[in-house]
Design a protein that fits this description.
The complex is a heterodimer of chains A (112) and B (110).
Chain A lengths: L2 E4 L4 E4 L4 E3 L1 E4 L5 E7 L5 E7 L5 E4 L2 E4 L9 E3 L8 E9 L4 E4 L3 E6 L1
Parallel strand pairs in A: 2-12
Antiparallel strand pairs in A: 1-4, 3-9, 5-6, 5-10, 7-8, 8-9, 10-11, 10-12
Chain B lengths: L2 E5 L2 E4 L5 E8 L5 E7 L5 E9 L2 E4 L6 E6 L2 E6 L8 E9 L2 E4 L3 E5 L1
Classes of the chains: A mainly beta (112), B mainly beta (110).
Chain lengths: 112, 110
Amino acid sequence: GNSVTQMEGPVTLSEEAFLTINCTYTATGYPSLFWYVQYPGEGLQLLLKATKADDKGSNKGFEATYRKETTSFHLEKGSVQVSDSAVYFCALSIGNFNKFYFGSGTKLNVKP
Amino acid sequence: SQTIHQWPATLVQPVGSPLSLECTVEGTSNPNLYWYRQAAGRGLQLLFYSVGIGQISSEVPQNLSASRPQDRQFILSSKKLLLSDSGFYLCAWNQGHAYTFGSGTRLTVV
């Protein structure tokens, strides 16, 4: 089947620390991979995406590389800010109807 | 530009009462539309998706139903709410390889 597993939170970091949120997936075909971010009290926003193996998605200083050999799409940022505090969801899209499968979300708390 | 509207933003309903959440999209035609639920402390679960008017696919058995009376309108309903229906409901539409989500409805069943 199709599923996404991401690291449990919450993750608490100090400002300017390096961030990694792990995400691995299983899929019956060749999925597209995404990271979505949910700020407090808001809906989900697309952060970045990658549609094929070895693609790197990037946005707002965040990066993730589609690794087919390890079925992973880990999210990284070199220097986090307090404003990055949010819940991050890893997701895959596959199939004719582009159904999405989401991970359970990882809450990030960044302290000044 | 394409936009998605979802309302209401918050809702408190007693157990056994009916529910109707509405989602509309603008700026596109024949979109794929989706309803997701995010229970407290958990991830997103796909409830329903629709690829056209009157076409509804249910992902999980539950107390809810969905309808698509118009191309850009997607409605989530229940005849009698349960406590377990509480959560954050998100409508989304799909274009190509990414979703656009509505702002969500926080439903509390009391």
